Amino acid sequence: MSRQENIQKRITVAVVNGTGYGGLELLRLLAHHPVFDLVEVTARSEAGKAVSSVFPSLPNLDLRFSETVERAELAFVALPDHAAVEIVSHLLAAGRRVVDLSAGFRLRDAALYPRWYKYEHPAAALLEEAIYGLAEWARPDLPEARLVACPGCYPTAALLALAPALAAGLIESDLIVDAKSGVSGAGRTLTLGNHYSEANEDVSAYGLGGHRHAPEMRQELVRIASAAAHAAVDNTPLRLTFTPHLVPMTRGILATCYATLRPDVSAETVRTVYEQTYRDEPFVRLAETPPHTKWTLGSNLCFVYPTVDSDNGRLIVVSALDNLIKGAAGQAVQCANLMYRLPETLGLPCEGVYP
Amino acid sequence: MSRQENIQKRITVAVVNGTGYGGLELLRLLAHHPVFDLVEVTARSEAGKAVSSVFPSLPNLDLRFSETVERAELAFVALPDHAAVEIVSHLLAAGRRVVDLSAGFRLRDAALYPRWYKYEHPAAALLEEAIYGLAEWARPDLPEARLVACPGCYPTAALLALAPALAAGLIESDLIVDAKSGVSGAGRTLTLGNHYSEANEDVSAYGLGGHRHAPEMRQELVRIASAAAHAAVDNTPLRLTFTPHLVPMTRGILATCYATLRPDVSAETVRTVYEQTYRDEPFVRLAETPPHTKWTLGSNLCFVYPTVDSDNGRLIVVSALDNLIKGAAGQAVQCANLMYRLPETLGLPCEGVYP
Amino acid sequence: MSRQENIQKRITVAVVNGTGYGGLELLRLLAHHPVFDLVEVTARSEAGKAVSSVFPSLPNLDLRFSETVERAELAFVALPDHAAVEIVSHLLAAGRRVVDLSAGFRLRDAALYPRWYKYEHPAAALLEEAIYGLAEWARPDLPEARLVACPGCYPTAALLALAPALAAGLIESDLIVDAKSGVSGAGRTLTLGNHYSEANEDVSAYGLGGHRHAPEMRQELVRIASAAAHAAVDNTPLRLTFTPHLVPMTRGILATCYATLRPDVSAETVRTVYEQTYRDEPFVRLAETPPHTKWTLGSNLCFVYPTVDSDNGRLIVVSALDNLIKGAAGQAVQCANLMYRLPETLGLPCEGVYP
Amino acid sequence: MSRQENIQKRITVAVVNGTGYGGLELLRLLAHHPVFDLVEVTARSEAGKAVSSVFPSLPNLDLRFSETVERAELAFVALPDHAAVEIVSHLLAAGRRVVDLSAGFRLRDAALYPRWYKYEHPAAALLEEAIYGLAEWARPDLPEARLVACPGCYPTAALLALAPALAAGLIESDLIVDAKSGVSGAGRTLTLGNHYSEANEDVSAYGLGGHRHAPEMRQELVRIASAAAHAAVDNTPLRLTFTPHLVPMTRGILATCYATLRPDVSAETVRTVYEQTYRDEPFVRLAETPPHTKWTLGSNLCFVYPTVDSDNGRLIVVSALDNLIKGAAGQAVQCANLMYRLPETLGLPCEGVYP
């Protein structure tokens, strides 16, 4: 089908679980998408209510929450992990295409689910089919995809920061990702940790014993580097430490990534590799100075800033994005655009709401 | 010219002083406006620099700051007050239309400038011509306007809250506007008051001796009420107390407005008057519950919530908006759309970036 | 007993419900009080746990949460309203003195409880005995008090702002209190409203249909004014509108209070009245400029700033305090100091943690 | 002199430059110090003004800013770096003892000043005499010290986190310190970076090309490890990468420190080493869970949390403190207490203002 026809023809879409922050952001982005026609939004707890009464920030969205998807050709699933897996299987069986924002189909190896997600994967056969939807690397596979597993917010920031260097063989395989996230990354569920009075004027680390986003980062870094045929990566297991932090802001992730530079890799080489990697990317921008998460607020942008600590022979790459957009809903729409061979940027904000 | 033709034909526009927060927000909104073609952005201090290097949040804006306006048919002026007046006169003399975001042409009575703005107005003749650009009340006058004086952020919130009640004769003429503003309202200039460590975790009142936005509120309230022919308003001078406050957030204004209800005015009457006033407004929404500034972040929306304190015979109206959009840049674009008979919502975000 | 002896002799005290924010702040203040010896802290949910493991900010408090008070001579009760009433009765019956931070004994008229607190008061006889513990006005009654009912955080701010003017007959009896509170005022219980991502970068009003702190303000304003024998106040019912707002900070209340000035009351008279009222107060300070809540953070201070809006014949008084200290725990300790004829400032911080 | 006598005898102290945040916090701490008698506060720009009018948060401090120190026996110098050096020399020459909060005397090697601080050190002879005032390691040297150079806020956090492991030979000499600081760390001077609207809802890294606090960390880590006689450290130059970040809060530093564990070092060994190191420290606490900066707000506490990432053979140590207290003014008072053989905790808050 030609691009022209696609733009003419509307594609019906649904959001499954429109009441979490990922789902809400999908609603905002899809409200004006020129091709995707948002026809259904599910939410068990709010079924029957007008979306605009639950979310007054969307006063023009003329839809009510429903219990199930009945009509949409494409479903965006924004459920918590375990809940997503079953519903995704049903949606696929009913002939729909699915963009899943949960972790339910991100790991290729079903054996990893019990350790990291505390459940046996009930649909392991789909793990191989699912396309890991980091659009910048998944582009060729998306048009045929039935099921896209969108990366987590942390992996998006880490992969966009480190994959170019690893793929180009610039660094050793010992990596540290020290990430700082806004509180919305922890979702809308009430916990003491996201109580305003507790989270405000505070910074803390968490997940020090191992965070569930780490295996996903490792899997994709190895895959991208292997594809680039760097033997060192294939044979040496990645030594990847990932430490997430909570910082007192609503949105944004800043990932500060550290790696040991290989001998004789210059700062110029590093810069060139990143420039070549991202030159034509609509949403990934090479920053001239250390990036601010605020540059990305409300947009699908990710800024990447590679720099060399020459005193210590290290590569440091800082990346910044809006965790609910490039780290979730925006990436999902970006993938969906590619699934339907639409212009990749369709309906996606490319400017940060600054300040 | 028909609407169809307008959409076809691009209109060249300029932003004068694109480095303040009002100017920056204009750049964001105009970057993708389907009719207005942003061709020039001035900024004395940054002339020659790429806009995207000064504001990385606008990575796709392919423009450099210039010193003057040379080509644009329409100029948005986002200068500080006194600086604006002279430049606006020049722009008009050169045959351009102007939407001015400063206070330079908001007051009809030139005699008020020395007291409130500390200067003698050098172009008093234009004060009469200027249209006060509160779009919801200025709509009929905008298509012919050469010069539109956009309301301040506080007056926008106060007028949208109080004008319906005053115009309908529901309230006495003693008014209190207690407004809470985010820090961006104070601009990008560095002061101890907007130093993060001073403004964070703090609330304070200011301008208690009289704030320069008060005469503008009074002028327009009287004008709107007079137009509605309520003698009581004409003859009784408004007793309007306005107290602005700084609250620790970047964007948003919440105005809590108090007035004495006239006898026998019921809550139902109040609600009906507000519903009738705003029923067809694209950006002003009657809220079902007390509104949150966060509902409006990043959008041109204003929520209005009228309620009756029956124990004390008072009307309380709470309004919420984004001070940089409906309170500044968005309102300017809304007026400009009307100046060119374009659809009023063209290029303006109608959804809040929530949370 | 002489003051000297009191300082020698330690007085055993307990905190009932040490896990809310009021209770936690009591623990911090009492940890080093030179006379009060904190021997017990109750908390049903955490009984048996070390206080320092639940609250790492108190690493030196060598106490475990218990279920009941067994030894203390004086109990500070920091329970939610209804829960407090029963326990306070028991504590008194067991011969202890009580400083109650709940609303359970603040209203003299038992008939008000069903409307405002949704329960029939089970110990109405105690309402008459209870001393309303706004220390600045309750001083003479405190040394003999068995039961002190500490004012709410909002009433403390409003009363310190308005009582002097009302008592001196400077103003009419139509009052508006527009108060802005940090989120900790809503307590430690989890609600969507105090979720970080919802409360951050947001301001909203609530309780517009009538807030339960209003009758308490009205009761005490009338009492203070009556004591000062101003007939006008006695006979005219106060027309008091109170609108609380939530602002994105953890601590602090700013109350902006409006009243109509009586004819011929000058700004000088106002200033003099306030100066005379607060001249010798250790914790209430007349501000030279509009006060900031940040000045009070972590201290028992309240700043009061009366000003005259002469254009409109209004008195505006702004007050600022830390809602958990002068608005709760600090006030409780201040009252307790007076109950035992100790120096009023004992153990209370008189400096704000700034910035 | 016996401790008893010291407590009897008041020691006169001065704060040089009481208008920065470090100086202001010194004023707060010294206002009630039981032995140090604050007799002078200098500030060129505010000379003659009452401290309490410049800083209303200190309403009881009955002092005026002066231009010079005339009487005090001990001076706390809270000037920017270069300015401090000259004044410290004068103060010492006049026979006073000095606790300097600047970096002017922190580096032993005068040759480092031109690179990192952009000036030739004018008093290099004093560099050897100065005691680096990290109280936990400087204790034996402080009683005789004439000049104490207080560590920077970042080095305090990093050294307390890493020194035990390095001194005990648990880790290799490749270190990464990823630190997150509140905005007050950047001082009270106005910059675009600490403008509220720019810093709020934002995280960013800075100093990626090398931050001036890094050489100080390296110097002291080597010194402490050398003292513990671990040859590996002596001979291998430390490979220390330090990346500071700005997070949207006023106070607090969280340092997340990474190092490669030596073979066969177990998590138990790590915990034991840290427990032994800090067992008797009044201000350094081993945390049971990852620490929060909020636990330390307003206090001189530092929480340290060592943990082993066994999948990757890394030690991760997280430390948290209040940058203006344990990272500046509190540490200075702690050192001064030790200089006069006073109890180390005198006048220092040991409880965080939470929440």
Structural overview:
The structure is a homotetramer of 355-residue chains. With 355 residues, the first copy, chain A, is of the alpha/beta class. The first copy, chain A, folds into two domains: 3-151 and 327-339, NAD(P)-binding Rossmann-like Domain (Rossmann fold, 3-Layer(aba) Sandwich); 154-323, Dihydrodipicolinate Reductase, domain 2. Helices cover 32% and strands 22% of the residues of chain A. The first copy, chain A, has 13 helices and 14 strands. Chain A has helices at residues 3-8, 21-30, 51-54, 81-93, 112-117, 124-129, 135-138, 153-167, 196-199, 214-227, 231-235, 267-278, 325-339; strands spanning 11-16, 36-42, 65-66, 74-77, 97-100, 131-132, 147-149, 171-181, 204-205, 239-246, 253-261, 284-286, 302-309, 314-321. In chain A, the strands form two sheets. The first copy, chain A, has a seven-stranded parallel sheet, with helices on both faces. In chain A, helix 2 crosses helix 13 and helix 8 packs parallel to helix 10 (214-227). Chain A is globular and about 60 Å long. Chains in contact: A-B, A-C, A-D, B-C, B-D, C-D.
